[in-house]
Automatic annotation (TrEMBL):
This is Intraflagellar transport protein 57 homolog. The lineage of its organism: Eukaryota, Metazoa, Chordata, Craniata, Vertebrata. Belongs to the IFT57 family. GO terms for cellular component: cilium; Golgi apparatus; intraciliary transport particle B; microtubule organizing center. Keywords: Cell projection, Cilium. Residues 1-11 have a biased composition (Basic and acidic residues). It is found in: Cell projection, Cilium. InterPro entries: Intra-flagellar_transport_57. One of its GO terms (biological process) is non-motile cilium assembly. Pfam families: IFT57. Residues 1-20 are annotated as: Disordered.
């Protein structure tokens, strides 16, 4: 039967959607899009030079290499983006409590 569930490309109501073969690479595509958008916002001049940081690679957040460094870069970018959106936000320090930093970032984003 053509409409029978379980055939290729179709799924029954109880079955979860299957991930395609490219799903494993979706995070890499998202990271490349993020990097393009950051470059359009001049993150290299406004963030990297000011904080003496290295440029992000195309897969920086897609692969867990150095969680502490990646977390600090994420917080630095989040603080910069919040400030760029017109809400003053203090730049977090590496020694700050990660839970407090994330809490303040989320709190500020909720106020948007």
């Amino acid at each position: 039967e053509e409409g029978a569930p379980g055939r290729r490309g179709e799924r029954g109501e109880e079955e979860p959607a299957e991930r395609g073969p490219g799903a494993a690479f979706h995070m890499f595509v998202l990271m490349e899009d993020l990097l393009d958008k950051l470059k359009l916002l001049s993150y290299e001049e406004e963030v990297l030079r000011r904080h003496n940081m290295r440029p992000l690679s195309r897969h920086y957040f897609a692969l867990p290499t150095n969680p502490g460094e990646q977390f600090f870069m994420f917080c630095t970018l989040a603080a910069w983006l919040i400030s760029k959106a017109g809400h003053p936000f203090e730049q977090p320090q590496e020694c700050d409590d990660p839970n407090a930093v994330i809490s303040s970032v989320l709190s500020e984003l909720r106020s948007f």
